[in-house]
Model the fold of this input.
Amino acid sequence: SKQAELGDLYLRQKRYSEAITLYTHALALDGELAEAQNNLAWLYATCEDEQYRDPEGAMEHAERAVELTRSKDPNFLDTLAEANYVNGKFEKAVEIERQALGLAPNNQELKDHMVKYRRGASI
Done:
């Protein structure tokens, strides 16, 4: 969707309010946009401007993205792991990141995230 693509552009430009508005509108029109679900979840989980963080929203959108892709996209699983992490569910984050690494075992970013999640879970 054009709105989701524009949301991606705004996200890259750190224009978070506009990105959220566009993703939300795109998803209201078509809730099946897995990438928009994922990108909104990532923004809600990790936004450097804390006023835009929404851990519950992150979980909701990340779960939907993973559901839409039947747990086959390692990046969407990574977002779901991050959503669990920011909601204090550290063991669950580790479990989900393990799934992501099963799909993309050489992805350094996923490996780095796993270190953080394991630390959170004291594993």
